[in-house]
Fold each of these.
Amino acid sequence: MSRVSRKVHDRRLLCLIGRYLRAGVMVEGVLQPTDEGSPQGGPLSPLLSNILLDDLDKELERRCLRFVRYADDFVIFVGSERGAKRVFASVQRYLTRRLKLVVNEQKSSVGSARDCEYLGFAFTGKRVTITVAPKKLKTFKRRIKELTGRSRGISMDRRLTDLNRYVRGWIGYFGLARQFDEFVNLDGWIRRRIRMCYWKQWRRPRTKVRNLVRLGVSLDMAIKHAVSRKSYWRLSRTPATRYAMPNKWLEQLGLLSLKQLWCDLAPLRGTA
């Protein structure tokens, strides 16, 4: 608040911000007090974060250090490991003693720039290729499995809507990554999971036979697949299910293509 008051002199506005910070937060329906900090996810939090850390920016500029900062996540670049350790210690002291902030020790470290992961991105190779960090890819696949889980008691229309919303938002953030082959593979994996969902939804052998035949599969092949004891996941990749539910069919149902969304963002990567 003292830093806000450097520029803002309207006492009514300062009082309003103070009341906002002390209003508390709802945790599982229970009001919890906010004795310090700003509520995470609140509309005012990013602004106040940048106001407070503007002092850090100016301090690093004064030291002629190269750095990049997004909200409270930042990376500082120096020429050697010895210099990095020295800067790490001095910046930590500045944050804790001058700005009265707590540094997350688990997320803070000294390392090579080529091993750096920042905001979910990794930077590899001598020419520095931007890729999605492995942890974020695992998180993506875990979320897709949740959205396409066979036990979710929802309609396929709702499932596709939820899936498309997540995929569109995810690629909107990670569209800078240059991983065409990776996105093509993920597309195929997602389609296979959707085929598995349909196969599970059809349940009874008679329903499976009827739907497969309706989608163009021969009666003999449909019966063979309908009575198979193989897992849903294995059957989702058989020639019969791929013939009955081709990529074009899934596209007509509204399933978005991760690859196509990535290609649409070519201007963002400067590759249009």
Amino acid sequence: MSATQYQDKTLTNQELSKLLDMVEVTVTCYLAEKPLPKVRLDDYPKAIAEKGACFVSLHVDGQLQGCIGTTVPKVPLVLEVMRKAWASCCQDKRFLPFKNRR
């Protein structure tokens, strides 16, 4: 995750790591056709449990394979990252869904 600016804040490495973990869990669930985990906002730092907007870009072998995002904060950032990671797997019309590339 390259962007560390979030509204007027800078996310810490720990917060960024938690968001990256969420992307990894989401992609793994998508590929395994398993349900996404339930997210308890109390388990996350305040900065990523607050409303936020994001873009999630997925790369395979250095090549872009999906990128979906929003600029308007409507839901907690950690949930938005989960949603956009899922969408990047299968809703970016420029690329085949991840499942179809195996």
Amino acid sequence: MSGNELALNEEQAASADAPVDGVAGRRTDWWAEARGIFWLVLAVLGFHSFVAKPFYIPSESMLPGLEIGDRLVVTKYPYGYSFVSPTFHILPFIHGRLFGRLPERGDVVIVTPPGSGTDYIKRVIALPGDRIAVHGGIVFLNGAPVPRVRMPDRMVPIDANTQCKDEEYPGLRTQGDDGKPYCRLPIYRETLPNGRAYDTVDRGWSPGDDYAEIRVPKDHVFLMGDNRDNSADSRFSTALNGLGGPVPWENLGGRAEFTTFSLDGSATWNPLTWFGSFRPGRAGLSLHPAREDKPGAAR
């Protein structure tokens, strides 16, 4: 074997042992991976805290518009930012809001009651300086009754999330023309002075139907649930799991915008049950009240 052939064979052997495109022998940079995950988590938390986040409806306080199992989007920026804006309520109480703006009457908002870490969802009824009272289930704003009109009953399908229990909705469980069970809810449409209208549930007298007139303090809002006989809101004390009267605006976490999807509660760990649990027709529902303009209506 010549010297040239020997050198060529040695060169080929060396090239065979070399990594292809630098892949073989490369070690995972776990520190770089950890940094990437950290920045990803930080970006998600930042988006949830300052732009928008998903929200799950755990109660029936906002029937008929929102049902247990609804998922929706809450935007964080419409009212500015406060100590409750971060996804995890870990900040101490700080007075005021950054880029603060008061909500509009009729807005559906997320609120964290003072001294609590639990988020509620309610509707803004009165603003700072307003006088508000409730007499016989009728809301009075600044001495005038809020107009309301009896609407056709709402037939809400009964499922694992909406059970229409007799102790809460006596006599309202019924059967529809399709043979399926429904909860027949009596509906009243309220129209606030700014022309914004929304549907409420009123089954008759309940403890929240009478509330002595108060004046909403500066930088506070008065909140109520649309399911007037089944809502712990500003009409009730914190001892009754209510909001304890008007709520400081620092405690508003954002504005509810629209539903994304809704589940009827029938899903289990089995993925085959997931798609069947989706409620039809509840995706993409706007949570902004309709505006029924009237001559002279205040904006």
